[in-house]
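During the no-cost extension, the postdoctoral fellow (Dr. R.K.) reprocessed legacy sequence entries with the updated structure-token encoder. One reprocessed record is reproduced below for audit purposes.
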Amino acid sequence: MKKKEDLHKITLRDGMANKVYKQRLLRDEAIAARRALRSMPERITEEEVEVLGVAHVLNQLVGFMVIQHPRYALKIAINQNVSSRIAYLLACGDYVEGHLRLLNRYVQEGDRVLDLGAGLGITTCVAGMMSRQKVVSVEPNKDVHEILQKNADLNKVDIQVEWGCAVAQQDSGETDFYVAEEPWSSSVFVIGASVQPPRKVPVVSVTDLIKSNNINTLSIDIQSSELGLLDDKSLENIEQVFLTINTPTIGERSTAQIVNMLFSKGYHLVDISGWSYYFKK
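Re-encoded structure tokens follow.
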């Protein structure tokens, strides 16, 4: 059996980053240790200057800029649709890191992945690089579709982009979607004050996508919509689930509901990284 490709690598090249940036990478484990289920990513005072510097670069940016992820063999395109804080976290390797770590560790060659809440395509790309298969990516925010496709092209990953909000069963029509300044707060629900007026987006049937694309793996990072999405029919042929749960937003009780629901459907919890969980039947 061919050995699984390991995308994980750490690169700290001379001249790649300044002192604050290097210190940020080296204290990653200490930061992770201070994160509890109810803790948001920590804002470190000295980093605000770094974020401001990224903002100045983005303000003058024409088209795309490509950065190398410091922990994975992953190229990431960003443009002015990406906030300066997200761009900085991407450069530090601290954006959806828990989810990436689990995908890198457990996705096998030949797995067929449906990525719900694909965003900029970071999780989509790692899933595709590990599986060497086409990834179906569902993302309701059309503003990031160009970046999603660009990142797939940069990393030579075959993707199928679906525009809409995921629902368990076929449901025609549209739903409201609220785009937030920080993408992890974008949702079909109003979460926080920094959101744009709602946009109408189509709904997409997860069950139909799984059936038509022979999906066996779900990767899910959708803000506060997990419980209504995962029903018996949608999970029928799913062997493994990678799930990020934003506990600071939905609370411990809802987190427990989601975990127990997957237990009741025959999944066991294999691994946890931050807010991200890996379940397998």
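DSSP finds ten helices and twelve strands in the chain. Residues 247-264 form the longest helix (18 residues). The remaining legacy entries will be reprocessed before the final report is submitted.
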